[in-house]
Amino acid sequence: MLPYGRQSVSEEDIEAVTAVLRGDWLTTGPTVTAFEEALSDLVGGHRAISCTSGTAALHIAYAAAGVGAGDEVVTTPMTFVATASSASLLGAKVVFADVEEDTALIDPAAVDALVTDRTKVVAAVDYAGHPADYAALQPIADRVGALTLADAAHSIGGLSGGRPVGDLADLTTLSFFPTKNLTTAEGGAVVAKDPAVAQRAHEFHFVGLMRDPDRFRIEDEGPWHQEVHEFGLNYRLTDLQCAFGLSQLKRLAGFKQRRTEITARYDAALAGVDGLRLPARRDGVDPAWHLYPVRILEDRRREVFEKMRASGIGVQVNYIPVYWHPVYADLGYRRGMCPNAEAFYAEELSLPLFPDLTDDQVDQVVETLIGIL
């Protein structure tokens, strides 16, 4: 089965990890610091806090933003459930804004109609690797005193208006799952523009531990002293994983280039095919394509999915609208809330896309899909 996504692991990656195994630190050591500094360089110089997954990154970011009971988080339903559920776990009410009909990115006009003085965070998702319209979202959030959050699990290395992902919103979360644009096996990171928010993120992911003597409430202890002022969790990434991530970061530009080449090959080969709609792209955006999401028209998505899989092509569907999940249905969310997202979901099919995919394999995907259609 040709997978729809797959990690790319080099001998240099393996050597980077084994070098840590031969050293003195396995976790919370100098390689974590080096990885976070390298991430900071990539995302506009803002502080980056590594963590155990993209889901953990979202939980950390919402906690650092002060999200709690009584707050609202406005987000998109066209995403993996964690974008919403990590806010729900903190007691927030999640408000789903519909997406743009063509890009499946959160629609700023829909957000504008939904924000209130209870809105704490406006969370966009860079679906498929295409950055959302943060230039439009930021003033909406600013108007009600909210922060913007970019769920950039799909888009590390991308640009919008010449600015890197990580510099587009107040907070940015990254994912380093194996199928993502770079991997640490499992892992993620939070990027925060505000140093105070970044420090809260760091402390939350470090079990709440605080080691700043100027903030201590207990005095006259020894140099070992540390305090917890707010509850946190152990979301720390290891030196082993950060060594892997550092090695992967050196290859990120090449990964992005190959993903762009594959996307262009799909675009050229599938243009004008009946029963098919290709991904949209906004001017001024340089996506770090994570998915290649086509739309299968005429109510044939399930048929095409099953026939592609039977032909050995590992297509996928991304994603069921979040509020369709029973956990949200049980809270009173109902189908029909976001018609554009639901129409997109009914047709979406992700074709294989990963750096080691060959041109011959791309052509095999194209020929199989056209044959089925």
UniProtKB/TrEMBL annotation:
The keyword Transferase applies. It is an enzyme of class 2 (transferase). It comes from the Bacteria. The active site is at K180. InterPro entries: DegT/StrS_aminotransferase, PseC, PyrdxlP-dep_Trfase, PyrdxlP-dep_Trfase_major, PyrdxlP-dep_Trfase_small. Keywords: Aminotransferase, Pyridoxal phosphate, Transferase. One of its GO terms (molecular function) is transaminase activity. Signal peptide: none annotated. The modification N6-(pyridoxal phosphate)lysine is found at K180. It holds the Pfam family DegT_DnrJ_EryC1. One of its GO terms (biological process) is polysaccharide biosynthetic process. PANTHER family: DTDP-4-AMINO-4,6-DIDEOXYGALACTOSE TRANSAMINASE (PTHR30244:SF34), TRANSAMINASE (PTHR30244). Belongs to the DegT/DnrJ/EryC1 family. This is UDP-4-amino-4, 6-dideoxy-N-acetyl-beta-L-altrosamine transaminase. It comes from Nocardioides turkmenicus. The gene is pseC.
